[in-house]
Amino acid sequence: MDFRWDILVEYAPFFLKGTILTIGLSIASILIGTILGLLVGLGKIMKNKLLAWPFTIYITFFRGTPLLVQILLIHFAVVPLFLDKTNPILAAILTLSLNAAAYIAEIFRAGIQSIDRGQMEAARSLGLNHVQAMRFIILPQAFKRMIPPLGNEFIVLIKESSLAALIAAPELMYWGRAMQGQYFRVWEPYIAAAVIYLVLTLSLSFLLNLLERRLATE
Amino acid sequence: MIQVKNLKKSFGKNEVLKDINVTVKNQEVVVVIGPSGSGKSTFLRCINMLETITGGHVLIEGIDLTDKNTDINKVRTEVGMVFQQFNLFPHKKVIDNIMLAPMKVRNIPKEKARAKGLELLRKVGLEEKADAFPDSLSGGQKQRVAIARALAMEPKIMLFDEPTSALDPEMVGEVLEVMKDLAKEGMTMVVVTHEMGFAKEVGDRVIFMDGGLIVEENVPVELFDHPKEERTKAFLSKVL
Ligand SMILES: Nc1ncnc2c1ncn2[C@@H]1O[C@H](COP(=O)(O)OP(=O)(O)OP(=O)(O)O)[C@@H](O)[C@H]1O
Ligand SMILES: [Mg+2]
Questions:
Q1: Terminal CA-to-CA distance of chain A, rounded, Å?
Q2: Looking at the predicted structure, is the pLDDT value of residue A187 above 80?
Q3: Which of A62, B27, B123, B162 has its CA 20 to 30 A from that of B14?
């Protein structure tokens, strides 16, 4: 099999642009998804079952339906409700964030509930209110335990951002498909895309390992 | 002063406290004894509202905890609690465990909180452990830090729930010593414990609980040496 390096070189600038957008989509969705996930997670563990219920529904929906369905729904149906013209980058970030938030909410919930009940009681008995006890005692301890599963979720998110190609957000996979369309070649574009995704996910795991080790020695 | 009036507490259908009436005067040391499951911990936890009260009233310095308008966080700063399992904050150094509440709840400046923390550590004999993490301490040391942490809020009342039950026997003494010092200084204390020696030496009064009720209460010598109730006799014959 001959491998056409020349078309890879030609497409390199597009792959670069695509990679930058993939990183952008991922970072934005990780940030929004994490904040949203924390709120949803806290919502779900509320004692009042009626108030917690919408959060449970949210998590069930986003974990129980395919991301592809969600991205198409949000791009073609939800975003047009609010904007005249739908925007693939916006739709991609929105979908990835909402989807990640559901998984992250469960990670937060499990992390928070894994902390011994006595910690909250000790904090409250010292006069800290619930929010202070969460902020200074429970969350810092829960966060440490949440790093490995959060890392997994972030890696999944980077990979799943490739679905944005299907709504024509010009990220990495979009350019891979464009290259295939132009040259009718499959190996070059998809191997190139695979290698770049691998570099991204491995870099993230590396960073997370570093963070985990830093926190472990603290 | 603690006033407990007709206190009732149920977990679902399980009525754990049936009708508790107790008054603990200032500077009094009350020891609570009783078989496992009799409701001793629940009673203590109702005094600082770690459990929601099902019925009756608990008053701390005249303030009714069951009153909706009571700022429970404020009352809790007056009531220190020491747990069987220490419940130190493992992610914070010993000194930071102690400084946290004064700084966050009372807004005391850091240097002042630290000075106070070190003074309390000196009092419990652990000044050199200020910058250690809780996991590196022995059980007895952990419990002494937990006592110092509770004292940092300068509570008027201290509650102890079996503070020495999770300790190796050789460490029980050091914790009891700290508690005896506190009692001598005039701290109002409610102590759930099986340490009968401690009860006799520093207790002003002993309460025997069984089945969610106070079966008998008296000064330690009387209760231990001349129990009136059959249930008290049966319990004491097992533990003494
Ligand atoms: N959070 C809870 N939910 C349901 N039941 C509870 C809860 N806490 C305590 N109980 C029940 O209340 C009863 C009294 O418990 P409590 O812990 O007050 O007893 P205790 O006298 O402190 O016993 P021990 O000597 O074993 O500590 C027990 O039957 C226990 O199962
Ligand atoms: Mg108990």
A1: 53
A2: yes
A3: B162
